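Exam revision sheet. Question 4 asks you to relate a sequence to its structure. Input first:
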Amino acid sequence: MNTHPYLRAYLAGIFVPTLVLPLLLTAFIVVRIVLKAPVPIEQGLIFPMAVVPLLFGLWNMLWFGSHECTHLPIGVHGAILPLVLMPLGATTAHCLGVLVLGSHGVTWFNTLQVPYMLIAPCFLAALAGYYLVWKYIVGFLNRVLGIA
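Answer key, C-alpha cells:
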C-alpha cells in the first residue's frame, strides 16, 4: 500500500482530535446548560474544532515527510505541537477579545481568571499529554496505515 502516503498521514493525524473535540464541546454545553455556568466556553471551542484537526493532520504529514532526515520519534514530534498551538491560540484569543492579559493572570470571557502560576504546570501537562497521544495513538495509526 504505497499509494497516497501523505493522505494516509493526514488521516492518521486527524483521528484523535476529530473524536475528542466533539465530546469536549458536548461536555461544555451540558455544563453550561445544566450548571448555568456564565462562561460561554462553547464559543471558544468552535474555532479550535476547525483548526486543531487540520493542524494535527498537517503535523503528522510534516513528521512523515521529515522523518528520514530528522529521525525524530513521533512522540517527541507530537510534543512540539503545543509549542506551536498555544501561542497561536493565545494570540488569536487575545485579538478576538476572548483573552485578556493582566498583571497577575489571564482572563477568559471577562469572567474566568487564571493565574500565571497555574499556566506553566498546565502547559507541561499538555506537553506530556501530546507526547503520549502521538506516541501511542498516532504512532499506532501510522503503523496500521503503513507509513511508519
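Marking note for examiners. Residues 5-144 form one domain.
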